[in-house]
User: Fold this.
Amino acid sequence: MSVRKGLSILAGVALVLAVLAHFNTSLGIAPYLLVLATSVLFWVIQATSWNILSGYAGYFSFGQAAYVGVGAYSVAVLTGRHDVGYPVSILVGGLLGALLAAVTGAVAFRLGALRGEIFALLTLAVPFILAAFVRINRDIDGGLGTTLPLPDFPGWVGDFQHLIFLLMLLVATLAVGTALWVQGSRLGRGLNAIHDNEDAAEALGVPTFRYKMLAIVLSGALGGLGGALLAVRNGAVQPELVFTLTVPLFVIVMSVLGGRRHWAGPVVGAAFVTVLQDELAAQELDQWGNIILGAVLVLFVVAAPDGLFGRLRVRPWLTVGVFVPVLVGLLLSGQYTELDAILYAMVAAIVAALVVDRLRPAPGAVSSPAGHLEPSAAPTEGARPTEPPATRPAGAAPLADLPQPAPPPVPPVAQSPPGELVSVAGVTRDFGGVRALDDVSLSVSSGEIVGLVGPNGSGKTTLVNLLSGAMPPTRGTIAIGGRTTTGLAPHRVAHTGVARTYQIPKPFASMTVRDNVAMAVMFGRTGASLASAREAAVRHLATVRLEHLADALPDALNLHQRQLLEMARAIAAEPVVLLLDEALAGLNPAEIDDAVAVIRRIHAAGISIIIVEHLLRVLNQLATRIVVLDRGVLIADGEPATVLRDPAVVRAYLGRQRA
Amino acid sequence: MTAVQAALSGALIGGLYALMAAGLSVTWGALRVINLAHFGLILVGAYLTYQLTTAWGIDPVLTLLVSAPVLFVAGAALQWAYDRLNIVEFNSLLVSFGLLMITIELTTQVWTADFRHIDAGENPYGTSAVHLGSIALPISRLVALGFAVLLIGGGHLVLERTFAGRGLRAFAQDRTVAASFGIDHRRLGMVVGGLAGVSAAVAGMVFALGNTIAPAHAYEWFGTVFAVVILGGIGNLLGSLFAGLGVGAFSAVVAVLWDPSYEPFVLFLAIILALVLRPKGLFTRRAAA
Amino acid sequence: MRRRVLAAFAAIVMVASGAACSSKQESGGGGATDQSPIVVGSTLSLTGAFAATGLIHKIAGEQFVERLNAAGGLLGRKVEWTILDDQSDTAKVGPLYEQLITQNKVDLIMGPYATPNILAAMAVAERHGYVLPQHTAVLAPQLTYPCQFPAWSIGPTPNQFIPNLLFDAVATLPTPPKKVAVLTSQSGSAAFVTDGLGDDKTGVLTVAKERGLDVVVDRHYPPTTSDWAGMAAEVRDAKPDLVISNSLGVDTVNALNAMKQLGYTPPLVFSLFPAPGPLLGLGPASEGALSVSIFEPNKALVDKVGGDAQAIVDEFKTKATAASVAFPVFETQAAASWNAWEILASGVKAANSVDNKAVCDALHSKGADTTFSGHLAFDQKVNNFWPTTLGIKQIQNGEWVMVWPQDRAAAPIKAPTS
Amino acid sequence: MLEVRGVDARYGDAQALWGVDLEVAPAETVCIVGPNGAGKTTLVQTIAGLHRAAAGTITVDGVDIAALPGHRVCDHGVATVPEGRRVFGHMTVRDNLLLGAYRPKARAAHRETEAQVYDLFPRLKERARQHAGSLSGGEQQMLALGRALMALPRLLLLDEPSLGLAPVIVDEVFDAIAAVTATGVGVLLVEQDVERALSAASRGYLLIEGRIAAAGPTADLRDRADVRERVLGM
Assistant:
């Protein structure tokens, strides 16, 4: 489904809801359903807002209350105290939410280390600070709270409840539409990649900082707008109302319960939790209400750890097939109110989906064998359920026995002028007190394959990290194709034509092999659309002969296949220079020969290569030059044969085994 | 002088923050479970102390003889359940939030939502103090610090010096390899969960010594305790002790020198600053990568 | 796949709405006859932070409804009370009142507990034109809805009234206090007594200065404060004659504890809105502490009120004890609850109808009769706040005793013992 | 000492090992070679108890350990040096070694064993108080070996000991393996550097698609056509 189609369906649904609400009296819809729907929409806004950053990009935030509070207090101060009109103050609420998010993001994302729980604590602190600020500042309300006047609105709207419903619906549609659009856009793909592996994403050319900033600002703006509407709905604002921990806790509960990787997850979660809570409150259960809510939460998270929506989506007909008859049945029985019926039907549908899921796991929902070593040694048979059997040579290891069709040539790269391609001048890199690289100078011309060798800890990987921009040198400069890359963000370095692989493969675990490669095409120098990137991806997969696994998830690949995937992803960025960091480690000789052939094909397409490798047999075959590092110092640079006879190299690196 | 008094009192109450944080920190660090239900255990610990003290006239500190075993079992049972159901990290946050809600409501059923307070007659620690010149060190806070040092220091020694401690640290880093050397993660996890329960019993007891108790308190502890856990470094016991003392003293001094209303403002700004400067926690040793 | 799900969603919406239409028509038929009960709806904080006091209002309200029905109900109809739990969450109050009015179709409503919740309920009441009797909102200037009726009047300008009341009371002591320490919770219902509200900056601080008192400590603390040692140390070192704790709940208890731990007991303490039980639990440390009250079940006061007062007070005690309320005494909170119910009942009787507009008008024109606060007349110019009956109470021999003003006191105010 | 008979292993529906038979005698180094994805690591994990065998028996000195959970297998004298070394980077070198002696029997003798390990790898003694994470790759491999030796194993499972190491270091590692074998320990070696593996071991097994395709003395294996084609790439 295209994003455009999704958006138009969303708009249609919103329109239907608006019409139903407008004519609720004549349609016989209880006014209270409107009230409840308004609550649901508020939580849909907040859960969706949270999900754009925390679900898509994986940056778990505890700070949702900050946006709600800023939005609500914008209305409280401007409308409640300074008689500014509601439309202006609501918009200001959204703007200030965005501004607050931008500041938070600028602090958090500038520092790469503020991830995971550290980011969560940072965001947890923000509402505390804002609440204290409101209480200190008597020009806001000093913590006393502010009451708001009843808004003026045209008569055709209906009564206040219609007004607030329509406003919430508008913002909720905006929020869900934004989430839907983001999910289908480059931004969404990028955020997904950040979620799976931020470093690899950046190295492939994803502007991670900009994307995270965009996500957090969208999240802040939507959260702020929702908070502003909360103030309008409640008619009064106090710090305890908005800057409370229950906001982030419930938002997290809703999004995670619903499912975080899809825009509809938070919508499902918000609707379910809000209706359930409301129903429990209406039953006059006192404490038992919260106990039931807690128990339902525990049960559903245990039963569907990756979110309810995922389970419902796998079996849409089962879901609808249970929901509708139960709903209709309960309503016709006359024993239940509409709300009871809706809730029980929702529960029935969820339980049905979960139970069926337990009995007969749906395809695509294979859980990885938890508690074991990563299944890199997973068998080649099975475990790739999405792959149609016909394309797999039965009973054969995928690589060794493949008939050898002429592999398609790597698309030629726009040849850079011959001459110096990579220039490293006087580069030093310190980690704390340890000098990992000491005044290294190196130059690579186009067309070369340079082997980088040295004992463990000699600085090879550090040099690769400096070349790819993953870290800046302490001193010295690096230039690619005559352009200085020192100080550029890694994705900018990638766009100058540098691609890399990782010693330990870092695939995007939630994407298929094809999409892993498509990411590199999308965010590479040419910046293709997803559709054309997927086509190109298949070509690159063919280069490394992984095309038969295009639909598999990386988890199902063995080590060799993962390393080939790394290479496919790297060449998909259409680099001029490719950095291979121990791309052959752990392969047996037959596989190494296969990988060497791949590397040669890549080189033949005009891509220069710097390869870190311990296997001298391979380097002897491949490299035009060998550079040796020892304890951060460049000790040899030249023809392979010459270098490997150098006594210093033999002493430091080769030992008794000669090439 | 007032500031010195405040800083000292604050640092002492930091012992309570550290006690509350220690159990949360160690289960998070070692077992990868963010156990919000820990706050519920602390609450139950406080109520058990209240109940035993007011009903039977037992010395509040001695109530640990009952509450510590009870909460050991509770903590171990929680860990058993998390492990059985394979619930880690953020899903554990949700599940334990559900359990926290249930715990809070159950304590409300038993003890009502009223504020409960151990009356002066039954609480010899409540209002007495050690006087050093014009500085007074309240006994209840000295108890807090004493238990914090004892429990956290002891825990630290166990982690550093014993085979079980090494086993736990190894398990925290790589459970598969640890298992291959004979570390039974189920049993060790339950022991750790149980000990976290014991720390909750102690924290609850200390809290009940010097404060009124109400079920809603469990939520109020979140901000400070999470700050202490993360500032100290997740899983770092000594770190949580120092972070607890630091947060206590720092907020008390801000309150006296400026105004109590600025305390959360300054404290949480300082926490953000600390995270920006030392994102791995203030008290984490710089381990070479 | 997505398309199918979206289609399913749309289908759900359509079916749900269709079903809603059909079922609605069945239930809409039964109109109210004269024999059907009058339903009053409200939320109370039965769980969460306000639950302790919420329970008191629940018991008092149920007791009132029981007595009312035993005496034949209202307009010859039984009265039913629907209580929903707002979980002490202000955000839930509004939607729950909307639910009561639009779904449960209650005839009348009663206010929830605590100022922020009452403000939230008032917004809904105003939208639907319902009469809102409320027991405990003290932020008088913000309660602007004309059909809101306070049951606990602390006057239209409590920020002026309370300091003056307090200072008048302590001025009668043999050695009136000269140095005061003021601790203020930054919450909606307490801070304005210290600092004033909006443009009116009158409060404890300004009144103290006018009267020539020396404010030696002035500290504001957030409602989330848990460590009182710093403030305690400051108060101790400033040696005030009177500590004014403009606080809620157990703040004063915690502050006094912290002072005690530093080896200090202030000579005289005033606590604005304490939770009644815990302060008594401090034993000798709280002897002589002052607070505000509209009613205490002191014998002198109960006798003065006369009528059913003693029976009401006793019955409440039995019910509250059974519900294991920590401090089962019919004092200010319960009396305010009783007042609120009597306001509602008076209005309905005077209007001879449950039409909210009529009830509101009747209350404006005729006022209400209450057991514990006498006849109330509501002045719309001051947000219906009636002349306050607020007094000062003091802990004497472990019991709260009304001590000021003299004409309503059960005993004279006592000087600090030290 | 080690006898594996008819072992199957599965990941969910997917079968990874099919009726594997092998044995290792004391003081013998046995290698397993085969293409990536053949199931070598699964086999090591199954023997180590980290993956449950779906069928078959695994006996160590006559005791069937196939059904034991991972943490009980080491009680029977089986120690593992996992692929990628996997030392505990945040613990000191000494703590890593002591962890190896976790099980009660090894714990009782940990002082003597520690001294023996330091004799074998003097560099570990120099670095005893350093964090393991700060060691070079070669040193980490020594540590992983030393850690396994602390468990007083009779059978040592080595998974890819040369992975990512400089040739000069690999020499040292294989010298150490030889020294360990000489003390009477049986070694089961999985190694991608097939030449090295075949020269270090006396016997070997060729594992292809989860089945033992060939077995015998390494000198014979080297000459087999399927070994040359499938793993040596000749």
